[in-house]
Amino acid sequence: MQPQKPPSLWVDNNHAIVRRGMVACLQQAGFVIRGESAGLAPTPVVGRLDVLLFESEGTALRRAVRLVAGSPTRLVATVRIASEQQVREIVDAGVAAVLPHDGLTPESLVANVRAVVAGAVTLPGDLLVRLLTHVTRTASLGPAALNARERSVLRLLAEGLDTRGIAEDLRFSERTVKNVVHDVLTKLNCRTRAQAVALATREGTI
Predict the structure, then answer these.
(1) How far is CA 38 from each of CA 5, 90, 165, rounded to the nearest angstrom?
(2) CATH number of 148-203
(3) pTM of full prediction above 0.85
(4) What fold does the segment set 8-132 form as a domain?
(5) Is 98 helix (H, G, I), strand (E, B) or coil?
């Protein structure tokens, strides 16, 4: 068996000192940094990237989403001021993690990026609360809307497990887990896993 390749990232941030600090932390943790940018210039090359870590300011979110469209590269957004509208737009766009600059530490940066590489979706508690205020309510949500298997999968999603971790915990195939997640998103009228977790948490389903 060949050794697993270390995850590769591109780091984007408008402030050189912050950017280089992130790069140093991630390199020390074993990540491969493929490039750096400020305001997504130069344009990140996503072909070999596991994660594009970018600063969500101005039009950066839309540009980052377009860059990774059709690729397996996952997005991690850093934000300076996380307004409710900004959090909503970021999560709706399918970003896997939102990291506020305020309170971001080397340890939390590395832990969140590792979780994203593993397939998880991560949101800090305060941002999850903001997301709860905008997630669409559905009349069918409740104990009768989700079966026991769907609630189990959703509960493990809320704990930060990725598809493989859920499959191992519940002794399902990864394909089954993906199908269950799809059914959950459909029933809850949610576009992303983070939305589903937020809605189910607010409604007391998990």
Answers:
(1) 27, 19, 35
(2) 1.10.10.10
(3) no
(4) Rossmann fold (3.40.50)
(5) strand
